[in-house]
Amino acid sequence: MAPFHPPMSSLQGRILVTGGAGFIGSALVWALNRRGHENIVVTDLLGSDEKWRNLTPLRFADYLEAPAFRATVREKADAFGRFSAVFHLGACSATTERDASYLADNNYEVTKELAGWSLAQGARFIYASSAATYGDGTQGMDDRDANLHRLRPLNMYGYSKHLFDLYAQRRGWLGQIVGVKYFNVFGPNEDHKGDMRSLVHKAYQQILTTGRVQLFRSHRPDFRDGEQKRDFLYVKDAVEMTLHFAEHPQGQGAGGLFNLGSGEASTWLALTTAIFAALGREPAIEFIDMPDVLRGKYQYFTRADVGKLRESGYSRPMTPLAEAVGDYVRNYLMTGRRLGD
After folding, report:
1. Is residue 193 annotated as part of the catalytic site, yes or no?
2. Among residues 108, 157, 314, 332, which one is catalytic?
3. Residue 236 annotated to the active site
4. Domains in the chain, start-ordered, CATH in brackets?
5. In this predicted model, what pLDDT tens digit does every residue of 113-122 receive, in sequence order?
6. Is the pTM of this model over 0.90?
7. Catalytic residue (one of 63, 112, 193, 300)
């Protein structure tokens, strides 16, 4: 993969990154560091998993546990001073989470509070919505369509994200803030995510252990086994796209909802073949039944229309799938490195 050179940054001042120890959050801090930014406050909920390791190579001014940050801001809005940009990436991202009350608070209420607080202090607010808000895609995946009520998310995670999109629209905030709808992001720093890891990470471990990869059979007649399609986005591209909206706060990227994806729909077979190729092995794939709990909530086809992103001025090329997989496998999974190492 060609060297990933960051563009010149126009960002100034202090920056807040919520979820900054997580997958995309830590990648965003890495990208900010590569631009020379270190005046960054990181919040997260480290818990008992290993995502704290994502922070060790990174440079930032302070770290705070998310509940403490939330409680302090509620009591005194100016307790932490002013920020020029707030990247709200902290959320429960488990699509299988069943505690709807927890998701409503953690993904919806917290976002409402942070958005209002950021706007009140004049900070640029960019938050993670999700492609999961689109549901099965039968209502389209159009980030230009203002009729958000047409969407039917398939799980409570997607609905918790959808709730804030609707709220921001009702409040008239979408002209001032940016919600980014990440499609299937994969790459370094995701190993703490358990079942929510990308197939690349899971398949790599399966290949090392068994020499083969298991994929779900298709349970729809219009898709053959392994030919379900997703828009796979490399995390290095995802954070460049996200930072674009902070570095270009005017014009067509000033506010609204934006799809962040590669713009291509690739099959699981293509993704898996790229993993084997990166390892110098012949593909060995076994198809297994999809669990009943997933069958009615499974997306068979996703592809981001990135026209609106391009019109906002984002001009960097997308990393081709095979090249991205090769970089991830050879330079991170095989070496045990994290972003910033």
Report:
1. yes
2. 157
3. no
4. 15-183+232-262+304-316 (3.40.50.720)
5. 999 999 999 9
6. yes
7. 193
